[in-house]
Amino acid sequence: MINDNKSNVSQEATDENEQLPFDEAGQDKKECEAPVLSPDVSSKLMKLVNPETIEEPADESENEPAPPTGIRVFGACLCTFYTKNSFLVLLLLAILLAYAYPPLGATYLAPKVTATWIAVMIIFLLSGIKLKSEELSKSFQQLRFNLFVQVFNFFVVSSVVYGFSRLMLHLGALNRSLADGMVISASVPITVNMVLVLTTSANGDEAAAIFNAAFGNLTGVFLSPALILMYLGVSGNVALGNIFFKLGMRVVLPIAIGQIIHRYSPKIVDYIKTNKKQFSKVQEYCLIFIIYTVFCKTFSVERDTTAKDAFIMISFVLLLLTSMMILAWFGLKLCFPTQPKLRVMGLFGCTHKSVAMGVPLINAIYEDDPLVGFYTLPLLVWHPMQLVLGSFLAPRLSKFVKAEEERLNLNINEEEGQPSV
């Protein structure tokens, strides 16, 4: 009872203390507390103190951005699409402009100087400066794999495409100029940037991608014209006496100069690396200009190729590309069963073809042939197809590499009698 009374008394005292208007120091709480002013009164008082620095708060409704209109949204979508697909957009525009008025690119822009000499030499000069030839010595340890990729890319793909195109030509299902163009496109070397980007995205072997891209482009300067002449001979109006002289002056010489700059002028190399996007655009615009003049030349003469022939060729290119990818995948699985990263890189390296290297080569070999545009068209179809298929397969191949490496590690641990981590 006594304890209960004490607790009641203490509770009452606590309640009384909470109701008292002063704190422990005995000071009046209301006197200590600052008066609460409304925002309007506070701002007016501050303006009286310093009227120059205090400004009226802006109306929130004025600061709110206007809701995007349909035109703005459509424009933003167009800009995004162009940024991601600038080469394809410019390629289509170049072909359409060439079709609309062929004499401009065929005659008035002096394509025999601007396109076949200046633009081609700029492309290969920049390629020579950026080409990391020192990477070639780092990957010779994988000689068997590199040999597989190069042989498949140059010889297997070109021989299969040659046989298929001759069969279709014999059956009358394909126009001769497009059939020859398919053979020419299959004889050009591997891409550089696309193979590296897709290999990285698919978790493949990046070092092998760099080596095979560099080595393929260097050997392609000599091997691609030899393959084209071996398959087609002089049927494409090829001047055998001048072809290697032109290739040497327009292709080999700029690459050699670029390699000298790469080795002995690090300032220029660093400047190009710093402005990599701008110099890549220069190469892209030169390539588009070459394609434009090529099709101007083609559209300026009478031709026997129809839109139906072009669509048939596109379907054949898709069939051949997918078939070559399937064949390369099973060949890589047979030869390199325990190296999933190499198999992923090899899938792209065995089948990809370079527009940046192929179009200038074709233009240098067939500069006087009016059908050069149709020789180039299959390569321009092969290029976006390999990008679309590669982008579709990249995330799936990345999962494959991860699962395959886990499986291989599990098998190794089981053979060694160790528990898997």
Summarize this structure briefly.
This protein is an all-alpha fold. The protein has helices spanning 2-19, 29-32, 39-49, 60-63, 70-84, 86-100, 102-108, 111-130, 143-171, 176-186, 193-201, 206-232, 240-264, 266-274, 276-299, 307-335, 340-351, 355-365, 372-416.
Provide a descriptive summary of the structure in words:
- The protein is mainly alpha-helical and 421 residues long.
- The protein is 77% helix and 0% strand.
- It is built from 19 helices and no strands.
Q: Can you give keywords for this protein?
A:
mainly alpha, single chain, globular, 421 residues, 19 helices
Mean pLDDT equals: 79
Low-confidence stretches: 5-32
Give the C-alpha Rg.
35 Å
Q: What percent strand?
A: under 5%
Helix content range = over 70%
Succession of helices and strands: HHHHHHHHHHHHHHHHHHH
Helical/strand content category:
mainly alpha
The biggest beta sheet, please? none
Number of DSSP helical runs: 19
Principal-axis shape equals globular
Number-wise, the strands total: 0
Subunit organisation of the chains: single chain
Q: First CA to last CA: what distance? A: 68 Å
